[in-house]
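Progress against Task 2.4 (sequence-to-structure conversion) is shown through the following example record, which the project officer requested during the mid-term review.
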Amino acid sequence: MAIRFTRLLPGRYLLDVKGYVCPHPQIYTKKALAEIAAGDQLTVEFDNPSSGESIGYLCEQEGARVLERHEHQGTFRWTLQKD
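Structure tokens generated for the chain above:
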């Protein structure tokens, strides 16, 4: 189990924090948002349901929007865009 922050394409990033519980997904999402430019998109994959509330709140505080929310077999995949 390792945190993975990957650049997929220009302006598109993936943060995989599956296997971690709060507050780690929120902390790593905040760090990843600090690393990307305004307008870039960050897809966050996590499997702790309570992390969704924390990440949603973080977006409000950090100037990011949740563009998409998907859940499949206990794994959540949210796409965020930094404002």
